[in-house]
Every structure is written in structure tokens, then in C-alpha cells.
Design a protein that fits this description.
alpha/beta; seven-stranded mixed sheet; three-stranded antiparallel sheet; 12 strands; 45% helix; transmembrane
């Protein structure tokens, strides 16, 4: 019996040590990323493929020059991008022909693609002019969150729509989000007019966020998916509820609209971009670095606790899920009204999300909670 108690005590002590190391690493990593929202690799520019001239990027703080900007992140989308762009530009051109005040731009953010995505994107710039279709090249893969952030920061629209390159949601569904945003803005503007006696409003100046949602398809999805996928989906919803709170049922739909004022607040503060963390504890750091040179080269941080080195390594891997959750969290922090609108959605082959992303998702959401709730991550108002 005494032996069992000794084993139990050692086991409990081991759990406490591991938990302490994990929490310490989380706090250190949150501290390391405290200014992550301010990081910009290099000045962004657009290249006109016809004249080969570089066109300076506008910035989100500048006044709007277009009615709507569509931001499409693309990573190795050579095959799926053309169909999505054909449908999108055809729809936008038809609206522009019917309404002369409807002006648009499509921003394709090439997230370090290794295939012909850049060539495909520039073909559409040549066909439609650099004023309507622009390409931002990130050079290397940063992940979807950073690709969208970069596109948003350099968009010219009064309202900004992010959508996936696979065309899973039909582009004309933007009218559903657009109409709801307009209705809310009119209500807000009407209330403000009553207070100060002034009339008129600008869409770009009132912060509103509209989230496309597939929640209405959940019942059908539950009936057709395998049990373990339903289990993971429910588990993810619970984790999101704990991290960001209630309000949006489907945080993961890639079809989201923001007014310029909302985008300015959100995308200058967003921090979750592109990290997968490998935690390793070892005394011989030099040996570890030599054995894992390819990983360590992407960035690492060393912590020391009582003579034991803890290494947190950031390796390639886009944080697909957490980026959307952080947007919801920030909307609540800023008091930005959020709308959830049902959109049509279809499964498109070639999804890049896999089960190996789950540990990364849990780490990032925990990190987000620690960073914001301890105020290590300060929000710029």
C-alpha cells in the first residue's frame, strides 16, 4: 500500500511539473507575441503585369476609393482559382453595368504558392486591369490568417468581403450580407441623427461585421458525417464557446463581410496567423538544434526552468481555425455589432484542413485567451 501511495505521489508531482512547464511556456509565448499585430514583413505593392510597373498599396487607414473589396487568399490554388474568379468577376461586372455607383476590386493574396497560382492570378489582372484586380505576393507561406490580414490592410473598399478561393459559397450571396449590413447601418445612423440632429452617414465609418453561416446545414451534416467527425465538431464548438463566448454559431465559414471601420479595428489587432508549436524539454539544446535544424531555422525560443531547457518552436503550418475565432473575440471587445446570415455552401474537393490541426487549434485558442485576458496582448482602440 505504501508503494502505491509513493507511485501516486510521484505521478501527481509529475503532472504538476508538466502543467507548470506548459503554463509557463504559454505565458512566455503570449508575451513573445504581444506585438505580433504590428509585424509587417515588407512594404506591400501591386505589380501591373502589362507595364511591369509597381503600384503602391493603399492602406486601410486611407479613405475608401471603391464601394467593395473582395479579398481572396490563395495557397496552391492553380486549379480551383479560375472557376471562382470567373464567377466572381462576371457577377461584379454585371452589377457594375447596372449600377454606375457600384465600384469594386478583387484582391488575390498569393500566400507563397508553389504551383501556378501567381500566373493564373496575373492572367486575370491582364484581362481586367490592375484597377479592378490586384495581386499581393507574400513571398513565402504565412497562413490564411496573415494572407487575409494583408489583403484587408491594403483594400480600398467601403465594405470588405473575405471569401475562399474554392468557390464553396456563391459570390452572389454577398447580397444577403450586404443587405443586412445596410439595414443595421441605417438603424444606427437613424438613431445618431435623432441624437445630434444631423443627417447622412457613410457606410465606411460605422463598424459592422457580418458572418456567413452554414449553421442551417448542421442537421443534415450530422446525419451524413461519420460519428467521430460529429464528435470533433461538437468538441470544437465547445472550445470556441469557452474561448470567444456565445453569439456566432458558425465561426469557420470563410465568407465574412466588414465595413471599413470594423476592418480597421480588427485587422490592425489580429495576432493569430501562422504557428504550430512543438514543445520539447531537453538539457542538451545544441544536440536538439543540430538534429532539428530544418525546424529550428523557422524560429525558436528557449526557456529555462530550474536548469531544464524548454524549447518552443514555431514551424510551418497555417492556423486556419483560430483566426476566425479571434475575429469574433475582437468584435466583442470593440462592441462591433455582429450579424450571422445563412449562405449557400457546397463541399469542394481539395480541403487543406486535417486532424493534425486539432492540437494546434487548442494551443492557439488557449494562447489567445491567456494573451488577451492577462492583457499581455493590448488592443489598440
Amino acid at each position: 500500500m505504501e508503494l502505491l501511495w509513493t507511485i501516486a505521489e510521484l505521478f501527481f508531482a509529475l503532472i504538476l511539473i508538466v502543467a507548470s512547464l506548459f503554463l509557463s511556456a504559454m505565458f512566455f509565448e503570449a508575451y513573445r507575441r504581444r506585438n505580433n499585430n504590428k509585424h509587417i514583413d515588407s512594404p506591400a505593392f501591386f505589380e501591373d503585369p502589362t507595364s511591369l510597373k509597381q503600384v503602391p498599396c493603399p492602406h486601410l487607414v486611407d479613405p475608401a476609393e471603391k464601394y467593395i473589396s473582395l479579398i481572396i487568399p490563395a495557397f496552391n490554388e492553380e486549379h480551383r482559382l479560375p472557376a471562382a474568379l470567373d464567377e466572381t468577376i462576371d457577377y461584379l461586372d454585371k452589377r457594375a453595368a447596372m449600377d454606375k455607383s457600384f465600384t469594386y476590386e478583387v484582391l488575390i493574396v498569393d500566400d507563397g504558392s508553389a504551383d501556378g497560382t501567381k500566373r493564373v492570378a496575373f492572367d486575370y489582372v491582364r484581362k481586367n486591369s490592375v484597377d479592378n484586380v490586384r495581386v499581393i505576393l507574400l513571398g513565402r507561406n504565412h497562413g490564411k490568417g496573415e494572407a487575409i490580414r494583408k489583403g484587408m490592410l491594403h483594400a480600398r473598399g467601403e465594405i470588405l468581403l473575405m471569401l475562399d478561393a474554392d468557390g464553396a459559397t456563391k459570390v452572389n450571396d454577398l447580397e444577403k450580407l450586404e443587405n443586412k449590413v445596410h439595414n443595421l447601418i441605417r438603424a444606427v445612423a437613424s438613431a445618431e441623427d435623432t441624437k445630434d440632429g444631423k443627417s447622412g452617414f457613410r457606410i465606411a465609418d460605422i463598424p459592422v461585421a457580418a458572418f456567413g453561416s452554414r449553421a442551417h446545414l448542421e442537421e443534415k451534416a450530422l446525419a451524413t458525417r461519420k460519428w467521430y467527425r460529429n464528435f470533433l465538431m461538437k468538441g470544437f464548438h465547445i472550445v470556441v464557446l469557452m474561448a470567444a463566448g456565445p453569439g456566432i454559431r458558425d465561426t469557420q465559414c470563410g465568407f465574412k463581410m466588414f465595413t471599413r471601420a470594423a476592418a480597421r479595428k480588427l485587422f490592425t489587432n489580429i495576432r493569430l496567423k501562422r504557428y504550430i508549436h512543438i514543445i520539447s524539454s531537453c538539457h542538451n539544446v545544441a544536440e536538439y538544434m543540430h538534429a532539428n535544424a530544418a525546424i529550428v531555422a523557422n524560429g525558436f525560443l528557449l526557456y529555462c526552468f530550474g536548469g531544464c531547457w524548454l524549447m518552443s518552436v514555431s514551424v510551418l503550418g497555417p492556423c486556419r481555425w483560430c483566426f476566425d475565432v479571434e475575429l469574433v473575440f475582437l468584435c466583442k471587445q470593440f462592441g462591433i455589432p455582429m450579424l450571422e446570415i445563412s449562405v449557400n455552401w457546397s463541399e469542394i474537393p481539395g480541403s487543406k484542413v486535417n486532424l493534425l490541426s486539432i492540437p494546434n487549434m487548442l494551443w492557439e485558442l488557449a494562447l489567445m485567451s491567456v494573451g488577451y485576458r492577462t492583457r499581455l496582448w493590448k488592443i489598440s482602440y
